[in-house]
Model the fold of this input.
Amino acid sequence: MDDKSFGFLEELCNSPGPSGFEGKPIRLIKDYVKPYADSIYTDKMGNLFFERTGRKGGPTILIPGHVDEIGFMVSSVNALGYLTFNQLGGWFDQVLLGQRVQVMGGKGMVRGVIACKPPHVMDAEERKKVITKDKMFIDVGASNKDEIQALGIRIGDAIVPESNFFSLTKKSFKEGKEVGERQIIFGKAFDNRVSAFLAAETVRQLKAQKISHPNRVVGASTVQEEVGARGARTAAAFVKPDVAIVLDVDIAGDVPGIEPHQAPARMGEGVGVTVFDASMIPNQALKEIVVGICEKNKIPYQLTQVAMGGTDAGPIHMSNIGIPSIAIGVPTRHIHSHVGVIDTADIDSTLRLVLELVKYLDRKAVDGLTST
Done:
């Protein structure tokens, strides 16, 4: 990544946009790709599309990365001015308490903290149990409903983590030897702003590098993936692609307590190529093309799988009469929390792979994905 793209990634990850409230990050992406796309348009679900056409009459390649982040929604305001909340996407109870949030109120962002009653007033049995989300509340410093109303907060307002993007550069070691430097980034919404960024960056690089490609590339920022891959359904129906390269994060398994069979990918070891998840088995011919391109071009890659969870590839590959699809991702530590962690080398590897795929997938190659 150059300074322009890195700065855009930081701004994109910091922007608030949980499922159903993706307006700000969508606008950021639209402005970023405008100089590079042949056309930009949306569907009625709110997905953003940006095209770059190579050879006319070539196959249509859909490259979606969902733009929504996990968050919350105000579900009630109690008499003391505390907010209860519903979750937008999957949250593990234990990552929430004590975390700062921002309420997207009608008068602007309102800062607060997720809390519960203190352990000092819990009985012995209560202190032994995990506090669940239904026992938590958000404190924005109010003392009654009137103060909440004055802040412009209503039931139905979205809530996002408060967690700013930052990076560090450090020495890298393998087998006890220094092998260079690594740039590590920390921040919220890496799932899946990193891939929304990559979809946009693909279109940018196609023009900036004057890359010739035998197809029509349609990058997409899809909405509401975290609440059931809803945007992917309309995106596939609208674009009717011949093949889909779905971008998402991958679970980095180099974390204490994770066994290799649960999450094989490791941060810094290359792009993750998903061979199985709960929503999709990839097109096998396309998978072999991906692996072959990685090996030919010396792009670091990892074959990965996850027994639970899925991506936009789930509904996309079953759309229309079927769409040959594969999911590839950037290994990310601590997804679905306030702070994710990524090695930027894995972002670079993923972008290299996508660009090489775009150059390779002509009509003959795409037709071969479904030939018998």
About this structure: The first strand starts at residue 39 and ends at 42. The radius of gyration is 21 Å.
